């Protein structure tokens, strides 16, 4: 390590890492935000690590200890201690990307995470939405929409999530031109996708019906924005904050606790339950590896496999 590198703070090195992510690697802003959030948390928990020479295995062990024993205030009065194993694994992965960059730049001689075994993760939560949950969400939209356009928009929003399994960034970035009514295909453009690859999703006939109905209502209201999902506050696309508010409001109205990514798990599990092979599910989800797809299929419930068992014979 050169003397100049040795004198630079860890924050300065991270800023250089971020610049490379932005301008050389051209990573998505959401990915960089994830790195930044985890790094700032790391510095807040380990303020004594001011430069790269303090990045030792012992210091990282201390970081994970503090992470799992600190108290956090959730909501107004709830105090929670520690984090889940899956959260630790996520933090570890994002920090590891930065540490590997430091290693490639010869700023550190060894990655301090290499000698620390990651936690075992057991996914016991039910990530896919059940049939009753989906019906409750559609019912809440039907009962509580304030006008005809918003009713049609919200039904399209639910249907896009349920029948296409889109990521948040892909969903919010959809444009009217991405819907091909003639070929009945939805285009997920590479510049809006985490994988950076454009993919095409066949439009389910139910979604197709709702899209036609919504576009007609939207045209009647003279919206001109290129974005498919419109805002309630003017001629513009729905913002991330607007989407967050929509989810929160629908949680309350339907009684179903959900976030957008649960629809992606639901989409994958529904396809698997209809005997769509994993390779085709991978393609529809836009995953770069089959291993990633398989993590989504862990949400398949045991009771959903009853018919599969009953197919066995002697």
Q: Give the SSE string.
A: HHHHEEHHHHEEEHHHHHH
Widest beta sheet: strand line-up: 3-4-5
Low-confidence stretches: none
Q: Gyration radius, to the nearest Å?
A: 23 Å
- Largest sheet report: 3 strands, antiparallel
User: How many individual helices?
Assistant: 14
Write the CATH homologous superfamily of the largest domain: Intergrase catalytic core
Which descriptors would you attach to this protein?
5 strands; mainly alpha; 2 domains; three-stranded antiparallel sheet; two-stranded antiparallel ribbon; hpI Integrase, Chain A; 314 residues
Describe this structure in words.
The chain is mostly helical and 314 residues long. The chain has 2 domains: 3-104, no CATH class; 131-302, hpI Integrase, Chain A (Orthogonal Bundle). Helix content is 54%, strand content 6%. The chain contains 14 helices and 5 strands. It has helices spanning 3-7, 10-23, 29-45, 57-69, 85-104, 131-144, 148-164, 168-172, 205-220, 240-254, 260-273, 278-285, 290-296, 306-310, and strands at residues 71-74, 78-81, 179-180, 185-188, 199-202. The chain has a 3-stranded antiparallel beta sheet with strand order 3-4-5, with no helix packed on it. A two-stranded antiparallel ribbon has the order 1-2. β1 (71-74) and β2 form a beta hairpin. α12 packs across α13 (290-296). The model has no long low-confidence stretch (mean pLDDT 89).
